Amino acid sequence: MPSVAFHTLGCKLNFAETSTIAKDFKSNGFEEVSFKNAADVYVINTCSVTENADRECRNIVGRALRANPDGFIVIVGCYAQLKPKQIMEMPGVDLVLGATEKFNVTQFLGALKKTHGNANVHSCEISKADSFVSSYSAGDRTRAFLKVQDGCDYKCTYCTIPLARGISRSDTLENVILRAQEIAEKGIREIVLTGVNVGDYGKGEFGNKRHENTFLDLVQALDDRAEVDRIRISSIEPNLLRNEIIEFTQQSSKFVPHFHIPLQSGSDVILKKMKRRYMSNLYAQRVETIKSINPDTCIGVDVIVGFPGETEELFLETYDFINNLPVSYLHVFTYSERSDTLATKMQGVVPIQERKRRNKMLRILSEKKKRAFYETQLGKERPILFEGENRKGFMYGYTDNYIRIKTYWNPELALQTKTFCLSSISDDGFAILDIQNRTANATNFSRI
């Protein structure tokens, strides 16, 4: 039996798609092995968002060649679609597949012979990437990442995703429900809805039929029919997070009180330069609506620092805007130039060291926000989905509102959803549970 190993870079959507590619290999007689082991085929699913996509790809290729110098190496994913000629010249790479071809890797493998030269490339024009392929990943049996949407019609001036994934398109509602049922039958307790622009669900065609459903329709159907404990929305644009979606999910017994809402900048000047589809006042309104319905809701924020034209004054405008919002944590990204984007032609380039300084300031703010949110939850009972791994005598999990917890290993709790009171916060930033037989003071918990 031939063997195959996978390595995935980037977002949860990539992980879901790698899982689908793996199923295709297994149905064609391949055995999946760890990436660190010798394999006949290595599939590397790449990302274009990371700052050093080329270096990351080369490093992973090197790891594969060290494990098996004769291994057949396939590169797929966003970076493969954007830079196929650059990748084909990498030493050791044998096959490069684009946005649509990646779901049919086994059809392009041939005799699995090393090329010893430029790799073979099969990549369609991105305008032809208009079909939807269902995917979900369920690596740790705790939660599954279910792909419901792909591509993006937005034209943000810093982003290459539309060039790498094509137009916005969606799975059918019935297909999503079917995948959700498959996930539930595996005993998985939580589904995370993923996509490039999840709130845009319902766009595109499926077969010869136009979609008739919206994201709200999908949310309502999953709430009614998905037999899992929890459903989480991975990320949703503020302009697409309608009040009716907020109101429905906040009263749902399955959708958790957690939203991740990209902001990118708290300055309207920068938002306009980015060609975002909202201004800061709309973002603030969304946060206010969420918190007015349920103050215990966790709200995560994406923000980019160092965008061209971001003066110190405009950066501090972003800092103050976020600081005054009741949000719970930040994902901070340092702006990096992407070829074929409008932002690379803009004036007012921010020096790299200044970008890093601003990134550090916002990461410190994120830690403060996270700590403050955790403190509001102490003394409250929250349902916790426990993970199934014993890590040196401890186990971990998440509350419904995305608080990371740590407690002593108990096999009876593994992969279960149980309600406990949050009693304190450890030195390393985990919430600690009020469980009997806890043998250490919370302040020393991280040192045990």
Architecture blueprint of SSEs:
Elements: E1 3-8, H1 12-27, E2 31-32, E3 41-46, H2 53-67, E4 72-77, H3 78-82, H4 84-88, E5 95-97, E6 120-122, E7 135-137, E8 143-147, E9 149-150, H5 161-165, E10 169-170, H6 173-185, E11 190-194, E12 205-206, E13 209-210, H7 215-225, E14 230-233, H8 243-251, E15 258-264, H9 268-274, H10 280-293, E16 298-305, H11 312-323, E17 329-334, H12 352-377, E18 381-386, E19 394-399, E20 404-408, E21 417-425, E22 431-433
Parallel strand pairs: 1-2, 1-3, 3-4, 4-5, 5-6, 8-11, 11-14, 15-16, 16-17, 20-22
Antiparallel strand pairs: 7-8, 9-10, 12-13, 18-19, 18-21, 19-20, 21-22
Helix pairs in contact: 6-7, 7-8, 8-10
Oligomer: single chain
> SS-based structural class?
alpha/beta
Largest sheet: 6 strands, parallel
CATH architecture of the largest domain: 2-Layer Sandwich
Count up the helices: 12
| Spatial gap, N to C terminus | 45 Å
Mean pLDDT: 92
What is the radius of gyration?
Answer: 23 Å
Helix content: 25-40%
CATH C-level name of the largest domain: Alpha Beta
Strands, count: 22
Shape descriptor: globular
The total domain count is 4
Order of strands in the sheet with most strands: 2-1-3-4-5-6
Using the coordinates shown, work out and report the CATH topology of the largest domain: Transcription Regulator spoIIAA
Can you tell me about this structure?
- Residues 436-448 have low confidence and may be disordered.
- By secondary structure, this protein is of the alpha/beta class.
- The chain folds into 4 domains: 3-124, Rossmann fold; 129-256, Transcription Regulator spoIIAA (2-Layer Sandwich); 262-276 and 285-376, 2-Layer Sandwich (Transcription Regulator spoIIAA); 381-447, no CATH class.
- The strands form 6 sheets. A 6-stranded parallel beta sheet has the order 2-1-3-4-5-6, with helices on both faces.
- 42% of the residues are buried.
- β21 and β22 (431-433) form a beta hairpin.
- It contains 12 helices and 22 strands.
- The longest helix is centred in the last third of the chain and has 26 residues, at 352-377.
- It is globular, with a radius of gyration of 23 Å.
